[in-house]
Amino acid sequence: MKMTGFTVIGFCAILLSSFIPALAQSTHPSAFPKDSTLSQLAHQLQEANQDTTQLRILGKIVSRCKEINQLETAAPYVREGLQIAKRTADPLVLGRFYAHVGSYYQDTANYPDVINILNQAIQYLKQTAQKKEITRAMYMLARAYSYRDMLVQKFNQIKQNLAYAEKINFHKYDVSNYALLYTYYAGKGQNKEALTTLKTMVALAEQLNSPSDLFLAYANFGEWYDLQHQFRKGLPYHQKALAGILRQGNVDVNYVSQTYYSIANNLLEQNRLSEAQAVVSKALQLNKQAGIYMPGNLFRIQGLIFEHQHRFEDAFQWINKPLQNFRSANPTELVDILSSLIRIREKQRRYQDAFLLLKEQKQVNDSLQRVEKYKALANLEARAELEKQTQHVSLLEKNMAISQLELEQTRQRQLLVGGLALSLLLLAIGGVRAAKTARTHVKILEQQTQQIRLQTEHLQDLNNVKDKLFSVIGHDLRTPVFHLRASLKQLSQPTVNQQRFDDQVAQLSRNVNAIYSTLDNLLHWSALQRNLLITRPARVDLATVTQQVLMLFEPMIAQKALEVELGAGPLWAWVDEVQAQIIVRNIIHNACKFTPVGGQISIDYQTVGQESVVVIADTGIGMQATEKPQPQKGTGLGLVVTQEFLGLNEGRLSITSHVGEGTTVELFFAGIDPGDNTKQDPELQASETQVSA
Questions:
Q1: Does residue 279 contact residue 264 with C-beta atoms inside 8 Å?
Q2: Are 337 and 328 in contact, with CB atoms under 8 Å apart?
């Protein structure tokens, strides 16, 4: 079959159009920076064909631009990456790229976009196993909320960050999160909570022994004492922060200079002028060596020292030197600078100069108030936008799935159009591949259907267990409650004699104990199902626990004339003491309940290898190995709770029983040498660590 000229031209145009999107993806900014690493990354970007590869490289480019402080260079790469991200489905690549962009937006103070982009980064990263990267993105999000004064979101995010770090046992950003939490409490005037947070932050920093964390913790603690006018207590922490940052080597001079300023200001407040002067001189020399000739805060503290020495003209000249810089860069600090200059001129009785400075201060204050008003308005708009985005999260997820489907369909159409030129040669192969793909899809659907069916059956089994359990519990509660009501009714009769009264009281006690035991086991079983219980193992004497439990059953033992033989202790084990009491109580309760009048119960303590064993034997009715709890015999919930608690404490249970002869229950716990101090109560160990710190 021959093709006309128009047909060939049209076919080639269609074929070329199918490859235009791929050509467009390879474009990038033409103005590459002169950094060799960036040039290599830009070359790799030009050679990359896949969207995921391009996003990985773009993320590295953005990070490199941040490292060499060329944020303006990163802007076109950020825009290109955000366009590519719209057609990418890999959650790991997307999460990492959005985290890079979020960090870039923070450095450019683009905080509304920071919050949006970091939320997306966290959402994608949570679909992967990159838990450490999730903690970094979550900390960056809390910091963005802090900069936007979104206090509720900031507080909630910090709590989520700390809980998540504890869950995955990764604490790299914990000190930084506590620093944000400290600013939250301090800003709200909650001094007690702020001080507690600072103590926790210092203890954690010393435990991690990270220089940057120690500097952050000590600097914040010193600032806290200064704000409380407890300068003597604050000075050691400022000095620790300085020593820590100097030990790091190759640090930012600005951080060192700010720490010197904090120390000098603290000494000045204590009127230790000569020491403050020495610190300022050292800091000025350091700045001069680094090529910084106008450190404003240091000039100001030097002026304040001169003011305390009544050298007012020298004080004015030193504070006035950085005035122009503050006028152009930091109007908030400018207000304090002008206040100092006004005060000095008033002391010199140069009231005309003081008046002119006061007018300038008023203008700056008015300007700041307008800025704060606009900032508050911008914050409200940002919060409204965030709430709007939150409300549409589910819709966005659905749209994402639809977009992925549409993208897949678009790519398939492009491949179809691009392959028309070879359709005659590849028709058979394409048919085979299509059939194979269809079979694969069918197989996947069958697997998913089977999985759903199994899940449905499992849920139905759980529901049946729940119904059966409620039925049994209802029977066990209804019977003692019925007897309880009947006993109370008989006691209310005026003709009841003393013997009858005593019998009824004993019956009431048994019924109340039965109800309490059932409800208590139900409570613990429910807590276990919802994972609400926390196991805190410690060194416990099981003999003491058993004696305490036996005291609870003294009325029942006396009433049934049971003979209890108790072995000699102690028997040490590594177990949660409260859960051990519940375990022993359930077994002894069953022994007392199913042992007839005049029967015997023996309790012995043994050590088998590395395990501590409590053996409880009775001469009760016994049970068959395959016997299940019946309504008239009890719910069996006590035994279930016992087994669950033993599992939580790395223990186990062994039951030997013969019908009519009795039952022997062996409770195995993790043993411990009474002289071994390597295992301690976690809370005691934590308190000892704080004392030593």
A1: yes
A2: no
In this predicted model, which residue has the larger pLDDT, 109 or 188?
Answer: 188
Can you tell me the distance from the alpha carbon of 615 to that of 613, in angstroms, rounded to the nearest whole number?
Answer: 6
Euclidean distance between CA atoms 690 and 90, whole angstroms? 45
> Cα separation of 191 and 187, whole Å?
9
Helices (H), 530-636: 542-552, 554-559, 577-594
Cα(59)–Cα(48) distance, integer angstroms: 14
Other Cβ atoms within 10 Å of 558 Cβ, number: 10
Give the Cα separation of 66 and 72 in Å (integer).
9
Tokens of 189: 């005037």
Q: What is the pLDDT of residues 142-169, one digit of tens each?
A: 888 888 778 888 889 899 999 998 898 8
* pLDDT for residue 25: 39
Instruction: Judge whether residue 135 has pLDDT over 80.
Output: yes
pLDDT, one tens digit per residue, over 562-579 is: 999 988 889 999 999 888
* Among the ranges given (326-330, 496-500, 673-677, 681-685), the one the predictor scored with the smallest mean pLDDT: 681-685
Instruction: Give residue-wise pLDDT tens across range 654-668.
Output: 999 888 889 999 999
Q: Work out the angle between the directed axes of helices 91-107 and 111-125 (0-180°, nearest 10).
A: 160
pLDDT of residue 6: 35
d(CA 413, CA 415): 5
Residues shown for the chain: 693
Q: Is the pLDDT of residue 653 over 60?
A: yes
What percentage of the chain exceeds 90 in pLDDT?
Answer: 13
Find where tokens 């004080």 sit. 315
Please check whether residue 561 is in contact with residue 525, taking contact to mean a CB–CB distance below 8 angstroms. Answer: no
Check residue 598 and give left, alpha or beta (phi > 0: left; psi -120 to 50: alpha): left
Q: Which of 70, 78, 123, 73 is nearest to 97 (CA)?
A: 78
Q: Which residues contact 634 (CB under 8 A, 6 or more apart)?
A: 476, 590, 593
φ/ψ region of 295 (left if φ > 0, alpha if ψ in -120 to 50, else beta) reads beta
* Backbone Cα Rg of the chain: 38
229: left (phi over 0), alpha (psi -120 to 50) or beta: left
| Those residues with Cβ within 8 angstroms of residue 399's Cβ, 6 or more apart along the chain or in another chain | none
Q: Is the peptide bond before 295 cis (omega within 30 degrees of 0)?
A: no
SS (H, E, C) 626-681: CCCCCHHHCCCHHHHHHHHHHHHCCCEEEEEEECCCEEEEEEEEEECCCCCCCCCC
| Structural domains in the chain, sorted by start | 455-524 (1.10.287.130), 534-682 (3.30.565.10)
Which pLDDT belongs to residue 138?
A: 92
**Residue found by looking up tokens 């005593």 in the block:** 502
Greatest alpha-carbon pair distance for the chain in Å reads: 121
pLDDT at 7: 37
